[in-house]
Design goal:
about 400 residues, three-stranded antiparallel β-sheet, 12 helices, 12 strands, about 5% strand, globular
């Protein structure tokens, strides 16, 4: 084991989390007037004060503050988590029909009332983590209520998995896309992946038998359907009966899926399922190492669409790569996976950490020398991926050096 480099990685990522990422989100990004987070901050730090506020952004901020408090026991993070929970419950949870709105305006009034299951998943994830960190029963009750709504309206009992998007009143929509770049298909890898992590977090707080069965079925869907037959990537979109509708390879989603599968199986303490998940994660990590890691500049390429490789480097795949490669190294002992984690962190430090304006840049060129622009804070630009990577590294290195195996959720 590379004990000294692991200790160095842990120390640097602990410092990044506590001295740069969290201070940015608790101070620069905080909406002092209306609560929550400012809806949009440009790359150069300009606040767009009247920008709408996204549910995903605010759920991820709530998860981040809660998980950091649970891991580091600093009361500053407890205060941030509690404030975030109050704001989230007041403005994103629908008091009439339940579930969470997709978007509110700058004042917190509903703006886009659609019920994306993807957003419901992040609400469950964040509220469950807040309960785990603080013991606040209101958050657990809210998470369970959203779980019940997802199960009542979105679960596909006949074909498996979950539908994607509904009206405020929970009527299935014709257009279920999360964004304009997504395919309008009935089922997606992305929604199911985040339901998996949400259900695993909720199960740790509430070991309900039906929840356990649903989490197990999500794991089996990934192992049997969502991971491509060759085992080298995840398929992004499917028809209602699970016919693949995408050939794009997203290296960030591939490496993220691998380690989340293992953690989901570990939440169930099912030895056979853990072994299947570890095998699948190893195959995904090997494919990403082969095809997605830049051998010249380091870091993870964005995606491959047919024969075209998008060589830009976006912040979130880099964060997921560190955790995914480290997790695969823990399970296999393959030094090249650990080297890939170290290499990704070197690229992040050199090119994505914004030492002038705070946080990380959204996207840079292959070499990292040129920013591609993009917001510092926005509906999709949030603290969850990079803060979680820091927390996972801290936990996993501590576990490895003590002879155990663990992560934030494990």
């Amino acid at each position: 084991m590379a004990e000294e480099p692991l200790q160095e990685l842990r120390g640097e990522m602990h410092d990044e989390l506590t001295h740069r990422i969290l201070p940015f989100w608790m101070n620069a990004a905080a909406d002092r007037r209306h609560g929550g987070v400012v809806g949009l901050i440009t790359e150069d730090g300009k606040h767009v004060v009247d920008a709408p506020k996204g549910c995903i952004l605010h759920a991820r901020a709530l998860w981040t503050f809660s998980a950091t408090y649970r891991a580091l026991s600093d009361e500053t993070y407890r205060v941030a988590a509690d404030r975030s929970a109050v704001h989230f419950a007041a403005h994103f949870i629908d008091p009439a029909f339940g579930g969470v709105f997709w978007m509110v305006d700058a004042l917190g009034r509903p703006l886009d009332e659609r019920k994306h299951v993807y957003a419901q998943a992040f609400a469950i994830y964040a509220l469950s983590e807040h309960f785990a960190a603080t013991g606040d029963e209101r958050s657990l009750d809210a998470a369970r209520a959203i779980f019940e709504l997802v199960e009542a309206h979105a679960h596909d009992a006949a074909l498996g998995g979950y539908e994607e998007a509904f009206s405020r009143e929970w009527t299935l929509l014709d257009d279920v896309r999360l964004s304009a770049v997504d395919a309008n298909e009935r089922k997606s890898m992305n929604t199911h992946l985040h339901l998996l992590e949400a259900y695993a977090t909720l199960y740790a707080a509430w070991p309900d038998a039906r929840l356990r069965a649903r989490l197990e079925s999500l794991l089996e869907l990934f192992l049997d359907r969502i991971i491509a037959p060759a085992g080298d990537h995840v398929v992004a979109f499917f028809t209602a009966d699970w016919q693949p509708r995408s050939t794009t390879v997203s290296f960030g989603h591939d490496i993220e899926t691998g380690w989340l599968l293992v953690e989901g199986a570990r939440a169930l303490k099912d030895v056979a399922l853990i072994e299947r998940a570890q095998h699948a994660a190893a195959d995904l990590a090997s494919a990403v190492l082969r095809d997605g890691v830049d051998p010249v500049h380091g870091g993870l390429f964005y995606e491959r669409v047919d024969d075209r490789l998008d060589t830009d480097k976006e912040w979130w795949p880099q964060a997921e790569a560190i955790v995914g490669f480290l997790s695969a190294y823990q399970d296999s002992g393959r030094s090249e996976l650990l080297d890939a984690a170290f290499g990704t962190w070197r690229f992040i430090k050199a090119h994505l950490v914004d030492r002038r304006n705070g946080e990380w840049l959204r996207r840079v060129s292959r070499s990292g020398e040129e920013s591609r622009g993009g917001e510092k804070v926005g509906p999709w630009k949030c603290p969850y991926h990079n803060a979680r990577a820091c927390l996972e590294v801290i936990s996993r290195v501590d576990s490895m050096l003590s002879g155990a195996r663990g992560g934030v959720g494990g």
